[in-house]
UniProtKB/TrEMBL annotation:
The keyword Transcription applies. Residues 1-58 form the HTH lysR-type domain. Transmembrane segments: none annotated. This is LysR family transcriptional regulator. It comes from Paenibacillus dendrobii. InterPro entries: LysR_HTH_N (IPR000847), LysR_subst-bd (IPR005119), WH-like_DNA-bd_sf (IPR036388), WH_DNA-bd_sf (IPR036390). GO terms for molecular function: DNA-binding transcription factor activity; transcription cis-regulatory region binding. Pfam families: HTH_1 (PF00126), LysR_substrate (PF03466). The keyword Disulfide bond does not apply. Keywords: DNA-binding, Transcription, Transcription regulation. Belongs to the LysR transcriptional regulatory family.
Length: 296
């Protein structure tokens, strides 16, 4: 196979030595030389300058070296994907998810995943983003799904979608005219918020702080559902994910309060331990998540 010859070429280029490459590949030195010679004949170009002590790539060799590394990486990836097709996906998948993701996005993804991989035992724990972050560090879950900015250099953090935050109020609230409001009109308002440690609460606090807003009074709930219901009952204004309030905005139970010149969005991220071994059930879920969010 051409990949065998490319692997020999890459190994020689990395080692800068034919005999050392031969040892690593369990080949004879003449066998390594034959691979390189055949490759040069096929490409019609000299790939290496060889001296008794050192091997140096030619300009053509440098070009091939970079491309060969890519080809070999793609070949290994293809082999893994094909092996995964042959293997039955079983085992367990445990994950922690923030409230917005766990209650409004994850069920849609899991419905298709469970249908495709019915033998996987799935467990979901829903909590606020800070708690999920600590749980992943403690090794309690395979993966975590959280909202907002994540400062975790010790973990593998992958953004999988953007989430829009919207200011909402009850239909009879003075700000619910449908017209965009200035930040100054949010002075002295009553707010309904999530608890400290929530990814959603971070954005409410940031809007209030950056806008220099005074808060007349605030009510704190430890779930987005509680915040949404309280706002719908006229308790105050709230900043929530559009996912959380989509149905209520469509039905008229809540009204969006656009803020003039401002759009608030945040990242939704997948967390994994850098030491977490590759588990088939986890790899397939990440693949399903990436594919499904594009159609949500």
């Amino acid at each position: 196979m051409i990949t065998d010859t490319l692997k020999v070429f890459v190994t020689v280029a990395e080692q800068r030595n034919f005999s050392q490459a031969a040892k690593l590949l369990n080949l004879s030195q003449p066998g390594v030389s034959l691979h390189i010679r055949n490759l040069e004949n096929e490409l019609g170009a000299k790939l290496m300058h060889r001296t008794p002590k050192l091997v140096k790539l030619t300009e053509a060799g440098e070009i091939l070296f970079g491309k060969a590394q890519q080809i070999l990486a793609l070949y290994e990836e293809a082999k893994q994907d094909i092996h995964m097709l042959r293997d039955e996906v079983t085992g367990s998948l445990s994950m922690g998810a923030s409230f917005t993701i766990g209650e409004y996005i994850l069920p849609r993804v899991l419905a298709e995943y469970a249908q495709q991989y019915p033998l996987v035992d799935v467990q979901v724990h829903i909590s606020n983003s800070d708690n999920i972050l600590q749980d992943i560090r403690a090794g309690r879950f395979h993966i975590g799904l959280v909202e907002g900015q994540v400062d975790a250099k010790d973990l593998q953090v992958t953004t999988f979608m953007k989430d829009e935050m919207v200011l909402i109020a009850s239909p009879d609230h003075p700000l619910s005219s449908g017209k965009a409001v200035d930040l100054s009109q949010l002075q002295g308002q009553i707010w309904v918020m999530r608890e400290t440690g929530s990814g959603t609460r971070t954005y409410s606090d940031r809007l209030i702080q950056d806008g220099g807003l005074s808060v007349k009074r605030s009510f704190v709930f430890n779930s987005s559902q509680g915040v949404k219901e309280a706002a719908a009952c006229g308790l105050g204004i709230a900043l929530l994910s559009r996912w959380v309030v989509r149905k209520e905005l469509e039905s008229g139970e809540l009204r969006e309060v656009p803020i003039r010149g401002m759009q608030i969005s945040r990242d939704l991220s997948l967390l994994q331990s850098k030491d977490e071994p590759a588990v088939m059930a986890v790899l397939k879920f990440i693949q399903a998540l990436t594919q499904n969010v594009q159609s949500l």
